[in-house]
Design a protein that fits this description.
Two copies of one chain form a homodimer.
Chain A: E1 5-9, H1 13-24, E2 28-32, H2 39-45, E3 47-52, E4 56-59, E5 62-64, E6 76-79, H3 86-93, E7 102-105, H4 112-122, E8 130-134, E9 139-145, E10 148-154, E11 158-163, H5 168-178, E12 182-184, H6 188-193, H7 196-200, H8 202-206, H9 209-214, H10 227-246, H11 254-262, H12 269-274, H13 291-294, H14 296-311, H15 316-329, H16 333-336, H17 350-359
Parallel strand pairs in A: 1-2, 1-6, 2-5, 3-10, 6-7, 7-8, 11-12
Antiparallel strand pairs in A: 3-4, 8-11, 9-10
Helix pairs in contact in A: 3-4, 10-14, 14-15
Protein name (chains A, B): Ketopantoate reductase
Organism (chains A, B): Thermaerobacter subterraneus DSM 13965
InterPro entries (chains A, B): 6-PGluconate_DH-like_C_sf, 6PGD_dom2, KPR_N, NAD(P)-bd_dom_sf, Opine/Lysopine_DH, Opine_DH
Chain lengths: ~375, ~375
Amino acid sequence: MRVRRVAVIGAGHGGQAMAAYLGLLGFRVALYNRSAAPLEPIAAAGGIFLEGEVGGFGPVERVACTIGPELRRYRLVMVVVPATAHRQVARWCAPFLGDGQVVVLHPGRTGGALAFHTALREAGNRADVLVGEAQTLLFASRVTGPARVRIYGFKRQVRAAALPAARNAELLATLREVLPLFTAADSVLETSLDNIGAVFHPAPLLLNAARVESGEPFEYYRQGISPAVARVVEALDAERLAVARALGLRLRSARQWLAEAYGAWGAGLYEAIQANPAYRGIGAPLSVEHRYLDEDVPASLVPMAALGRRLGVPTPVMDGIIHLAGALRGTDYWRCGRSLAEMGLEGMSAEQIQRWVTLGEMDEAMVV
Amino acid sequence: MRVRRVAVIGAGHGGQAMAAYLGLLGFRVALYNRSAAPLEPIAAAGGIFLEGEVGGFGPVERVACTIGPELRRYRLVMVVVPATAHRQVARWCAPFLGDGQVVVLHPGRTGGALAFHTALREAGNRADVLVGEAQTLLFASRVTGPARVRIYGFKRQVRAAALPAARNAELLATLREVLPLFTAADSVLETSLDNIGAVFHPAPLLLNAARVESGEPFEYYRQGISPAVARVVEALDAERLAVARALGLRLRSARQWLAEAYGAWGAGLYEAIQANPAYRGIGAPLSVEHRYLDEDVPASLVPMAALGRRLGVPTPVMDGIIHLAGALRGTDYWRCGRSLAEMGLEGMSAEQIQRWVTLGEMDEAMVV
């Protein structure tokens, strides 16, 4: 059964770009969004104008701010929302997802597929819905006007994994019918922990908080990650790698990632960042009210630290960033962030987690 | 017995100002310092030139970089060194301190007198040496040349406490013979926890790390403590007050302190800092290699957090600052900072700590 129809949930820049691009490729696309505002011009135009790396018009056959039984007709569901909304989207979709549908989070951040799956089950959905997550959003994009979006560039390759990984082939076959740039990750543990945004987003924003609030522009990577800030980022990265190791994964460090993704080498992280021409001119956020804290802390650092705590891996720098960012934003990211319970991993050992994400085997007592 | 001779340990700006001022007042002053460099011009001149709030020449009868039996002749010993050196100074003095001598730390930061007393005992000194600490250094000063120091201004009043507080009258009588601006604090818990530097120094420096390293000058308080940074500082301050409360102390908040010390009022800490004319023009440190981290973290935040942990008071923001500052400076402040053991408080309950610092009563099992 070939994929003909794709539902896209989320009409931010990524969701609009996804809907437009798939429409342009000839798929029948539905676009859902909680608020109607971005949808109205799309409904009026019958689709989305695409510019940049890909130009044209992507028809969208259906736009809606409520999900109904028609979701069942879309074999592939692309979720392109901030990770903090994954559970809510799952609850929203739960009554209408059935056997054979495939849901992919772009991206999952840390534990997105696990949280989505758990929320579906909690909402009473027992259907054979295959949930997976991509390691990153496949393109850089920006909304440039009503019903108009620009794609700056595609990633060369994006890894994705199904939950459980035993069904990776099935997920990838479906996904690649639509977007061939996806390749299989080992499991959602890999896509979840190979989360470079978790390393590069919250810490430098936190350690530049007053400068961001001063309103003076500065370059986020090249000026915001000074030698001292780079040492904190490296300590955080080492904790991420230690959590991954406790789950049997050997991931590359942020510094190795810079070398592989950009050919940017350096004796340390600071030098590697300075050596990366792709970071030139990337400005810092203009406010601390920004997804670098509000998404990356609760949906990346909190679940990583929760895994660390469960597995006996100390994450003091990660914990510190979570608490300081919470104090800075006046919120408790521990409470509102992605917990082991939300990911359906409460009480599991490293081995039980591995068995569940790879083979789908879960001890009876663990089943929600 | 009137005080005639005062030993000053430490020849930084504070120690030189202390020695010069006491010399000018007519006391016979010895000045000790680990390194000989600042002492040589003082030895050559026979004292220190004083300028600023007080002008003149303060004779110094003895300068030395080793301490010997002659220390016994100085009834009052003023320790004016970074708090991270308190234990080392105690070990240095231990063989030469005897009954009736009074040692005062200017200031103790958090747990200075406790740490000094414990180090004396550990070094085998069992004499009746009265150890106390001041809440802050009594003047603002700066070294302006060889054997030359400027006092910018005196605090109106500085609180000090003896260990135990039952001997406050004795300590204050001795101290006030020399410097009448001292008044009695409840106990060293008050001088140790009413530590505003611990609140205002490490967190803003950490949250401005890249800006400090950029070399661009900015005002430490008025620009470095933006609204978001102020929220972190207030969360930290609330933890300090909670630790104090667990020890039976009701201390004023940093915001109340700004109102009392400077008449600077505001709806929140940010507004109070903006309203404080005394903070105008105070530049930020030029490097993260600075006592705001290297002294205030190990000798203020670490002992406060250790007390919190012992007493079941969560200090997640404080812990976070300690860990992030450690990562930033490439050191483990938990390990090198002031522990409960160093303060001689290991295993004590809140009530045992209170009894020890106020009455000098210690359970047999606790005696070093």
